[in-house]
Amino acid sequence: MTPGDQPLRIGMLTPLSTGPLTHLLDDPPADLPAGIGGPGPTDLIAALAAAGHHVTAISLSPEAAAPVRARGTHLDLRLLPMREEHRGRDAYGPERKALRAELDGLDVDVVHAQWTYEYALTAHHATVPYVVTVRDWTPQVLRYNFIPYWLVKLGMNAVVLGRRPHLTTPSPSVLRRLGRLGFRNVRHIPNGLQIQDMAVDRPREAPKDPPVLLSVTNEFSGRKNTGALLQAFAIIRRRHPAAELLMIGNEHGPGDEAARWATERGLHVGVQFLGEQSRSEVVAAMDGADLLVHPAREEPFGIVVIEAMSRGLPVVGGTRAGGVPFILDGGAAGELVDVDNPESIVAGILTLLGNRSRYAECSTVGLQRVTEEFDVSRLAELYVRAYRDAMAGRWVR
Questions:
Q1: Which listed residue, of 116, 138, 140, 307, carries a Cα 20 to 30 Å from 176's Cα?
Q2: 290-346 confidence digits (pLDDT tens)
Q3: Inter-residue contact 165 to 124 (CB < 8 Å)
Q4: What is the count of structural domains for the chain?
Q5: 161 and 213, same domain (yes or no)
Q6: Average pLDDT over residues 341-353
Q7: Rg (Cα) of the chain, in Å, rounded?
Q8: Most confident of 3-17, 98-112, 138-152
Q9: Is 397 inside any structural domain?
Q10: In what order do the strands lie in the sheet with 244-248?
């Protein structure tokens, strides 16, 4: 085995979900926190471990009253306490201090931090090369969430980028924006899925009657734009009176902000506000639905879109919604619409509901595209190449 083939020891600083990683642990503790989510990094950790690399994953969790640690042959998992509120007042000061203490004790070849905030600020103190994945565009998030917390995050992001680390991003739109700021060697590595676990065997042929539409998003805001979908769905029900809309995610449960907003405007009829669901419950909802409608104005990547495609579920998304047009291959794998116009969303939905040929085409092309382009095992190889280039000094910034 040549040095270039040796398994790596990787320190991963990231939000994550522990559920998909427990099979990599020898004796998962009964009090193992669920984690705060992050399907992209979670699947990457699993893929790196499956390829024989050793990953030490360090994460924060409000469920952890004290550090929780678990080990396996290829995974060392560490979850540290995180305050439930007021973290922005000191830019995650105590959390970063705890992360730094763990980082200082690591014996690894390379460190990989996810997002340009507390984890990336900590990674700067590594004694080995480090890589940062830029997963959102903070100025755009702040535009739709102009609150002190995101102003602090903007400052954190500026410090991280000002240090000019090795950068990757899953998002074509973020890649372009970084390029305009003078970052020339950012590597574009999309998010991926465990295809062997997620992808169905065959595409779908036609929607059911009455149809079931699905939305999965963790924010009721102008950025995620589910209000426009609720307006569009009210129009859809004039054509399909028994149609249903399932809304999954934070702020979209019974009595949550989305439900209150819809009820005040008479847009709640036929809508099930399900709120936060586990990943397996989301997959089950996808299998029972006929369309995923993703009305976000800004979506750096949109992992829920590739999850839907892996289940053969056709997608309606935004023409200018960050990474969504890239995922949908410019409209070959789904309907692209003007998400600022509810009538345009309606037109995209009706195209798929009323045209069996187009519906089957989107299901077929989407399933093929996600299998060929977004298999996390293949994408993990690109990250390993990036790690080795950073370690060898071949990655010119």
A1: 307
A2: 999 999 998 888 899 999 999 999 999 999 988 999 999 999 999 999 999 999 999
A3: yes
A4: 2
A5: no
A6: 98
A7: 21
A8: 98-112
A9: no
A10: 271-275, 244-248, 212-216, 291-294, 315-318, 335-337
Residue 171 tokens read as 């998002």
Question: Taking a C-beta distance cutoff of 8 angstroms, is the pair 355, 198 a contact?
Answer: no
Residue 272 CA, chain-centre distance (Å), reads 23
| Mean pLDDT, residues 126-145 taken together | 95
Neighbour-count burial of 154, counting CB atoms closer than 10 A to its CB (0-12 exposed, 13-18 middle, 19+ buried):
middle
Specify the amino acid at residue 34.
A
277 located within any domain: yes
pTM comes to 0.91
Split at pLDDT 50, 70, 90, the class of 1 is very low
Over residues 89-93, the mean pLDDT reads 98
* Statement: residue 36 has pLDDT above 70: yes
Give the pLDDT confidence score for residue 387 in this predicted structure.
Answer: 98
Range of the domain at 14: 3-192+375-392
Segment 72-88 shows an average pLDDT of 97
Q: Are 160 and 121 in contact (CB under 8 A)?
A: yes
> Which amino acid is residue 45, in one-letter code?
I
The answer to whether the peptide bond before residue 241 is cis (omega within 30 degrees of 0) is no
> From residue 240, how far is each of 235, 236, 291 by CA, in Å?
9, 6, 14
- The domain that holds 226 is classified in CATH as 3.40.50.2000
Amino acid found at 101: A
What is the residue type of 359? Y
